[in-house]
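Issue 218. Parser rejects a valid record. Input:
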Amino acid sequence: MDASFHYLLMAAHALFQKQVFLRLSGSGLTSGQPKVLDYLGLHDGSRQREIAAGCMMDPATVTGVIGRMEEHGLVERRVKPGDRRSSYVYLTPLGREKLAQVKNVFVQLEHELLRNLPAGQPEALCAGLLALCGEMVDWEELQ
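Output the parser choked on:
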């Protein structure tokens, strides 16, 4: 296996995603949906552009993901009084059930992946990844 930073980051992401979907098999969730459910769990009633930014996804991709989620009864779009120009996305009861499944998988995977790291390394790893994300978000804002 290539030990370069870019390869390891892409491999870790791909392997994590594979495990997420293996553990969510039978849930009916598709690519992008666990991330959106996780975001809405913390920010229910968000606008699509907020979801896109929070999930680090292209706004057009989020539109498609949310459309499919709405078709399957996971979310609903509503307008707020006084703001008819924007629709806000809310979890439905079924969406909350799926969110609970997603959160359970995320917690299990985090525990399994981080449990054998030496003391302090899980925190250092998360801090490093947070710093990398912050750096790359800054790049996005420059474009």
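Fixed in the parser; the record now loads. The longest helix spans residues 93-114.
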